[in-house]
Design goal:
Order of helices and strands: HHHHHHHEEHHHHHHHH
Mean pLDDT: 87
Strand content: under 5%
Radius of gyration: 21 Å
Helix content: over 70%
Low-confidence stretches: none
Length: 354
């Protein structure tokens, strides 16, 4: 009886079209954000921050970007980690060559560089689709990996090929403690989520969804496939570039090209499939699931008292991932986000049967 819209009258277009039209949803979201900022730092340990929370926040940004491209625009991508590496190396070169730049400016510029690269590799989407486009984005993954490994300028001529930037400093505040990293990443994630949510609700987002549903019909009603597809690639790559810069500077601290390999691209794709394609909330669910599941699988044999080798645990991880993807594609193609939506619908009707 608590989740009702009774008495919540919309008297203006602005109130009717707001992001969270139901008052209970607004209170719930504000409560979750407040708890995330205030309560999590008091309860989580340094290990939880490093192993769970920080990777979850960064991968959620990348998953939101991939969801914009795949879930909202219907353009498949198997090489999204490559765009993350573009953002990471762009941020690294901006920091060492222009040390006076604020790190927030570096983040934006790194995202813009990744967006330009995404537009370049998104051009084939104007002529090809489906598996052919997937192969084209896979080629982008291999080419960008090769470029950062072979062209020494990107790594500032490091003999080992790895880079190690300085700690992130923001307005004189050095972000080096796990709690400080958490607050900084949470703030960036909130901003990026609001940006993505408003983009998908705008005319740009509607054009993406029209292209996804039927590109021929979309072009007939006046939507330009060139603009819609390339803008989706640009926005998605921008999110990936920002996530890549954060992954390298805040989470890893030092990295090499293999840090953004094809396995990371597949994990991002698993996130949106399990979480729910075409859903911002699904990106959160998918990222949490993919980050938590390997740690649970590693600890589960110890909890059950079953001796299993490390190699067997890694194989079980791939088996479980594959089985879950098949399960969600068959049983619930819209992922965990759809299950959440069904729960909300049932709560709005409870305790009445209809």
């Amino acid at each position: 009886m608590l989740y009702r819209e009774n008495g919540q009258f919309k008297t203006t277009y602005r109130s009717d079209q707001q992001m969270l039209p139901i008052t209970q949803d607004r209170f719930f979201v504000w409560g979750v954000v407040a708890l995330a900022f205030l309560l999590v730092p008091l309860l989580a340990s340094d290990y939880m921050f490093r192993a769970l929370v920080v990777p979850f926040l960064i991968l959620t940004i990348a998953a939101i970007g991939l969801n914009i491209l795949v879930g909202y625009c219907g353009q498949i991508s198997l090489g999204h980690a490559a765009f993350m590496s573009v953002g990471a190396y762009a941020a690294y070169n901006l920091v060492i060559r222009f040390p006076f730049l604020n790190f927030l400016v570096v983040l934006v510029l790194a995202g813009l560089v990744a967006a330009l690269v995404g537009i370049l590799f998104g051009v084939p989407s104007l002529r090809i689709k489906g598996l052919y486009l997937a192969v084209a984005t896979l080629a982008a993954q291999f080419f960008i990996d090769w470029m950062f490994a072979r062209v020494k300028w990107f790594t500032n001529y490091s003999p080992s090929g790895s880079v190690s930037p300085a700690d992130v400093s923001l307005f004189g505040w050095t972000i080096d403690e796990p709690v400080e990293k958490y607050w900084f990443l949470l703030g960036v994630l909130v901003v990026m989520t609001l940006l993505a949510k408003n983009l998908t609700r705008s005319h740009i987002g509607r054009s993406w969804m029209a292209i996804r549903d039927m590109d021929v019909a979309a072009s007939v009603i006046g939507i330009r496939p060139l603009h819609a597809k390339l803008s989706a690639f640009a926005v998605s790559s921008f999110f990936a570039g920002v996530a890549g810069a954060l992954w390298g500077f805040v989470h890893l601290g030092a990295w090499e090209p293999l840090a953004f390999n094809i396995n990371l691209s597949f994990n991002l794709l698993f996130m949106i499939i399990i979480g729910g394609m075409g859903s911002i909330l699904g990106s959160y669910f998918g990222a949490a699931f993919i980050v938590v599941l390997p740690l649970v699988l590693n600890q589960l044999p110890n909890w059950l008292g079953i001796p299993i080798s490390t190699a067997m645990v890694s194989h079980l991880e791939f088996i479980v991932f594959g089985a879950l993807i098949v399960l969600f594609l068959i049983a619930e193609p819209h992922g965990l986000a759809r299950l959440w939506a069904i729960g909300k619908e049932k709560l709005r009707l409870w305790p009445f049967p209809h």
